[in-house]
């Protein structure tokens, strides 16, 4: 949707709601830049989950495996903000 109409504010309100936090085992909030790079996005998702930045030289398939290990079988909410 158009910028400035409150999409992020609405998502933040839902993301921060106690019922939402109780419902999901994991919550992740990731800002996506205009330049779409899957490896960077996966790194940001892992960082959002672990609060630690993954090693910079890891291959995409390694990062995907790391992410899969963290979320497999869990109920999670992933918000991708600033998607172009």
UniProtKB/TrEMBL annotation:
UniProt cross-references to Gene3D superfamilies, sorted A to Z: P-loop containing nucleotide triphosphate hydrolases
Domain NB-ARC as annotated: residue spans: 1-84
Swiss-Prot/TrEMBL GO biological process terms: defense response
Pfam families documented for this protein: NB-ARC
UniProt GO MF annotations: ADP binding
Record bears the keyword rRNA processing: no
Entry keyword Hydrolase: no
Keywords: Plant defense
PANTHER family in UniProt: DISEASE RESISTANCE PROTEIN RGA3, PLANT BROAD-SPECTRUM MILDEW RESISTANCE PROTEIN RPW8
Protein name: RGA10
Protein's organism: Lagenaria siceraria (Bottle gourd)
Organism taxonomic ancestry: Eukaryota, Viridiplantae, Streptophyta, Embryophyta, Tracheophyta
